[in-house]
From TrEMBL:
One Gene Ontology MF term: catalytic activity
Species of provenance: Paenibacillus antibioticophila
Pfam family, one: ECH_1
Name this polypeptide is given: Crotonase
PANTHER family: ENOYL-COA HYDRATASE (PTHR43802), IP11341P-RELATED (PTHR43802:SF1)
CDD domains: crotonase-like
SUPFAM superfamilies: ClpP/crotonase
Family: Belongs to the enoyl-CoA hydratase/isomerase family.
Length: 279
């Protein structure tokens, strides 16, 4: 009988190096901390990272040495939006690039939910868009100045890439619609009251608290951790299967016929995208 050659998972040393331009990873005693960043500072949105994230979730999820994951940002902001990523109007993108953007946007959230089989903690370290990466985690904590802000509708684009979907699931359809249409700031305290997060902390206490929670989770048997995460994350799997593709297709169709493009509209809210509340 010919011996079968098994293809094993990618090692931490390899994938942490592979994604270091976009994600800074550390691991201790089975707990992996993943921080969004750009040049060692707050993450500034770009398409390269947008693509890399979905691949990173797959590699992290397949590594049996990872037993709890913490996702956070770097510095005093979770994410800095950059209108210049839309310097070329989406309707002018090549057809193949539009298709790739659709699939990458789906996988960004799908791989986070379907490829990660361990407990997850999101630690939102400041203002910025795309907080769904943290709110999709089992536990989400944030700083007082966090800003759960969805800029899509105000920027002239249907809100279909995940932010609204997570709000609909967490706070209900009516409240989510209000925040989608108005773009009103949801700060840390409001997020706590709405049930988006479980704790609000000063920034210097955020990551230590995330690690404290991770270490507490690690006290349970491995099978208990894995299967509890499976139960806890199931509503997200159901929501993504039911609605993510539908919502994203609507957003991207509108972008594909938008002759004006979103660049100038987003520039009008530059302060918000930079993590400054200018309402």
């Amino acid at each position: 009988m010919t011996e079968r050659r098994m293809i094993g998972p990618t090692k931490f040393e390899e994938y942490s190096e592979k994604y270091k331009e976009f994600l800074l990873m550390t691991r201790r005693d089975g707990i992996i901390e993943v921080r969004l960043h750009t040049d060692g500072g707050p993450y500034k949105h770009n398409w390269e990272a947008h693509t890399a994230w979905s691949h990173a979730w797959s590699d992290i999820g397949r590594d049996p040495e990872n037993e709890v994951m913490i996702i956070s940002g770097t510095g005093d902001k979770w994410l800095i939006g950059d209108p210049e990523v839309w310097n070329t109007k989406f309707m002018d993108w090549p057809k193949q690039k539009k298709l790739e953007q659709y699939h990458e946007s789906l996988r960004l959230l799908e791989n986070l939910i379907f490829c990660i089989d361990i407990p997850t903690i999101g630690a939102v370290n400041g203002p910025g868009t795309h907080c769904e990466l943290a709110t999709l985690c089992d536990i989400t904590i944030c700083t007082e100045d966090a800003d759960f802000f969805d800029p899509h509708y105000l920027g002239g684009t249907p809100p279909g890439d995940g932010m609204l979907l997570t709000l609909q699931s967490m706070i209900g359809f009516k409240k989510a619609a209000y925040y989608a249409y108005t773009g009103k700031n949801i700060n840390g305290q409001t997020a706590l009251e709405l049930g988006i997060v479980s704790e609000v902390l000063p920034r210097e206490q955020l990551l230590p608290r995330a690690w404290e929670l991770a270490e507490m989770i690690m006290q349970a048997p491995r099978s208990t951790r894995h299967l509890s995460h499976s139960i806890i994350s199931r509503p997200w799997k159901q929501a993504l299967v039911a609605d993510q593709g539908f919502q994203l297709a609507h957003q991207m169709y509108d972008m594909a016929i938008d002759e004006e493009g979103v660049l100038e509209r987003l520039k009008k809210m530059q302060g918000r995208l930079m993590g400054k509340d200018v309402q």
